[in-house]
């Protein structure tokens, strides 16, 4: 006996649309069982996870802060992944953007101008794009595997940031602690509305999602991306260059990751520290696939994932659920979403070993 | 009459408030940078939380959030705790500093306590322990115990806390053997068993026979155990990981401080302060002195007593690494200097990473 996965002959658009909801329902049921088994009230646990974070302006702001970098990065990655360019190094491009964008606030803290903030943001995008250009050049010119090169460059960026804040950019007033000076007010990304906590990064994320969606679905460029992703041979016949696409997709996603990085530093942290990301660049890969590489769905996916982070904390505080359990619950969600998506396109067949060996014999 | 009435209502109100305070348990909340059972630093704080819970029983309720990254995540968690009704919040990692300062400003009615930081406000106190007192004892033991006259020192970051430890260790060692040497390895992490173990191996390969660590995992001690060499535990008693290698350990003992502060909050005597206590106040305690001769053990115990009686390891004459005089004979270091300490004493063969 063995299991086989085979593609379904027809694709049900009804189930494709229902799939996320089925997954959510399964997560709620499985999570509820787990919470009950741990001796916690499943209803209050689920309430803390999904509802409590949506009940106050404060937590909605926090949700926007947490999901902004995830959405920005994932939208960029959707272009990469749609064209089959496996950029795994968004975390490094995030850091590179943060570093490049911090040049002015750290080295010229007294310079204030209305132009300062736009320049900082553009520098952040340039930083991310330049850093993404390295694996792109290696792939396009030397045929190096971009999964490895982009991933390895993450560690280089992390260590470079570490060195920068301990060395040349260390706050001279900071008792030798590894951090830069705080950004001045004019270098700080302001909140979306006065009194709120969420900064403009979330708006940038929404704009990026809409623009990218438009590009992917409604322009020739989007067609090119999808054709090259489906089959690079077919793309070549259409006159598209997969070499140029390597550059385009990496620079595009690198720029968005860099923008996410500088927004996080300028809007939320307000200074550089040895660690500026709890793994946004990697989590965004999950977000991109949760959103099925569609920029608009990615917005939803980013918000849902952000919600489970906040919910995990709320559950720790209100019902004393351990952080590990919160992570397991998050894992449930991802597992069911990806599982449901797979089962809509494929089905599992039990193949009896007798028949299978018979087939082999026939061959 | 009107004034009297006003005074009466005011005092009635105060009584009511005081009574309410007697009845309602105080909600004390904790934020950890690691997990509550990491075997080192965060576990030390969580044990202290349980100690607080046990000591004060119904008078206190505790909550904690673990694995909180420094930066925006810490700010959010602190805000969430303050909003959820915590009366006092202990932020137990240095890296939470700017987040605590920010959130303390937003919630003036909540009291905040930040471990090992240096920024205070009306509702934000800091607390730390004079761990360097313990390191002085470690230095003396190492100098007496070592056959090679050289100890290895595994360190995290060149911050004042760590530099103080190195200097104090060196002064202790020099008081036994003026030519004592240390080899320093910076691993740039507080907790990374792999890196810490590699550093320990490299040090033993270079001929040291005792290692000291200012990182949190028991990995270096486990290497010492394997090689038949010696070391000291950090933050908690690590003898179960290395029964034949641990000479003693500097054990963090935050519990009594937490009890004292929560009690102060309940009687209304809580004030912002910068607490920096030592061996005498039992905020750090020495694990049993083991795997050493009776003679060495006696010296260690006497030194511990001497420090409890008021001896300061940073008592002159002390010369800086560059040969200039830091403290004249009989002079002791000021707390401000120690808090920002960024130079070595004479005899340390290393350059501070700049």
Q: Helices, strands, pairings?
A:
The complex is a heterodimer of chains A (363) and B (354).
Chain A: E1 2-7, H1 13-37, H2 42-51, H3 57-82, H4 90-101, H5 103-107, H6 116-142, H7 146-166, H8 201-218, H9 220-230, H10 232-237, H11 242-269, H12 280-290, H13 295-319, H14 323-345, E2 346-351, H15 353-362
Antiparallel strand pairs in A: 1-2
Helix pairs in contact in A: 1-2, 1-14, 2-13, 3-8, 3-11, 3-12, 3-13, 4-6, 4-7, 4-11, 4-12, 6-7, 6-11, 8-9, 8-13, 12-13, 13-14
Chain B: H1 2-23, E1 26-31, H2 41-56, E2 60-65, H3 72-83, E3 88-91, H4 97-106, E4 111-115, E5 124-129, H5 131-145, E6 150-155, H6 160-176, E7 181-186, H7 193-205, E8 210-214, H8 219-227, E9 230-235, E10 246-252, H9 255-266, E11 274-277, E12 284-286, H10 294-308, E13 318-319, E14 325-327, H11 335-339
Parallel strand pairs in B: 1-2, 1-3, 3-4, 4-5, 5-11, 6-7, 6-8, 8-9, 9-10
Antiparallel strand pairs in B: 10-12, 13-14
Keywords (chain A): Cell membrane, Membrane, Transmembrane, Transmembrane helix
Subcellular location (chain A): Cell membrane
InterPro entries (chain A): ABC_transp_permease
């Amino acid at each position: 006996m063995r299991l086989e996965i085979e593609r379904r002959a027809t694709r049900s658009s009804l189930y494709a649309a229902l799939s996320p909801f089925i997954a959510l329902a399964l997560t709620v049921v499985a999570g509820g069982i787990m919470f009950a088994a741990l001796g916690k009230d499943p209803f209050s646990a689920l309430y803390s996870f999904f509802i409590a974070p949506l009940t106050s302006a404060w937590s909605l702001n926090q949700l926007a802060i947490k999901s902004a970098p995830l959405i920005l990065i994932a939208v960029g990655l959707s272009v990469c992944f749609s064209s089959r360019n496996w950029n795994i190094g968004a975390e490094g491009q995030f850091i590179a953007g943060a570093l490049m964008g911090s040049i002015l606030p750290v080295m010229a803290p007294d310079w204030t101008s209305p132009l300062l903030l736009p320049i900082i943001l553009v520098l952040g995008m340039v930083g991310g794009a330049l850093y993404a250009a390295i694996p792109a050049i290696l792939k396009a010119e030397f045929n190096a595997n971009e999964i490895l090169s982009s991933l390895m460059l993450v560690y280089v960026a992390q260590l470079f940031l570490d060195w920068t804040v301990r060395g040349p950019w260390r706050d001279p007033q900071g008792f030798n602690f590894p951090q830069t000076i705080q950004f001045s007010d004019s270098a700080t990304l302001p909140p979306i509305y006065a009194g709120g906590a969420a900064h403009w990064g979330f708006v940038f994320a929404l704009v990026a999602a809409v623009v990218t969606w438009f590009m992917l679905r409604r322009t020739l460029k989007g067609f090119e991306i999808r054709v090259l992703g489906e089959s690079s041979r077919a793309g070549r016949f259409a006159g598209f260059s997969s070499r140029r696409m390597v550059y385009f997709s990496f620079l595009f996603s690198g720029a968005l990751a860099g923008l996410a990085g500088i927004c996080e530093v300028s809007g939320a942290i307000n200074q550089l520290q040895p660690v500026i990301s709890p793994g946004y660049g990697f989590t965004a890969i999950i977000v991109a696939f949760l959103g099925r590489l569609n920029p608009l769905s990615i917005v939803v996916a980013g918000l849902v994932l952000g919600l489970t982070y906040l919910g995990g904390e709320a559950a720790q505080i209100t019902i004393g659920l351990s952080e590990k359990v919160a992570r397991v619950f998050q894992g449930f969600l991802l597992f069911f979403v990806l599982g449901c998506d797979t089962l809509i396109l494929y089905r599992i067949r039990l193949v009896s070993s007798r028949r299978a060996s018979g087939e082999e014999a026939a061959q | 009459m009107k004034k009297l009435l006003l005074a009466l209502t005011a005092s009635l109100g105060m009584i009511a408030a005081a009574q309410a305070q007697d009845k309602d348990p105080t909600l004390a909340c904790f934020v950890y940078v690691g997990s509550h059972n990491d075997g080192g630093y965060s576990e030390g704080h969580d044990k202290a939380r349980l100690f607080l819970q046990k000591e004060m029983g119904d008078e206190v309720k505790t909550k904690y959030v673990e694995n909180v990254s420094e930066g925006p995540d810490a700010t959010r968690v602190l805000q969430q705790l303050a909003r959820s009704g915590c009366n006092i919040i202990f932020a137990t990692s240095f890296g939470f500093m700017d987040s605590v300062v920010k959130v303390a400003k937003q919630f003036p009615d909540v009291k905040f306590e930040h471990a090992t930081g240096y920024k205070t406000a009306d509702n934000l106190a800091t607390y730390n322990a004079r761990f360097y007192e313990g390191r002085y004892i470690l230095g003396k033991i190492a100098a007496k115990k070592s056959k090679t006259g050289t100890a290895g020192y595994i360190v995290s970051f060149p911050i004042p806390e760590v530099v103080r430890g190195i200097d104090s260790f060196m002064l202790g060692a020099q008081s036994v053997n003026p030519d004592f040497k240390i080899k320093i390895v910076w691993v740039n992490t507080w907790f990374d068993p792999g890196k810490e173990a590699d550093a320990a191996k490299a040090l033993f390969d270079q001929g040291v026979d005792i290692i000291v660590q200012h990182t949190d995992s028991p990995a270096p001690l486990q290497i010492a155990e394997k090689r038949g060499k010696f070391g000291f535990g950090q933050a908690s008693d690590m003898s179960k990981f290395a029964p034949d290698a641990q000479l003693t350990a500097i054990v963090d003992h935050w519990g009594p401080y937490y009890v004292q502060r929560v009690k102060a909050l309940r009687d209304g005597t809580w004030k912002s302060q910068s607490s920096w206590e030592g061996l005498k106040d039992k905020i750090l305690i020495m694990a049993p002195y083991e795997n050493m001769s009776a003679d060495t053990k006696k010296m260690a115990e006497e030194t511990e007593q001497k420090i409890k009686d008021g001896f300061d390891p940073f008592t002159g004459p002390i010369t800086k690494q560059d040969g200039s005089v830091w403290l004249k004979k009989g002079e002791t270091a000021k707390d401000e200097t120690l808090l920002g300490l960024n130079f070595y004493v004479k005899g340390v063969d290393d350059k501070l990473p700049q």
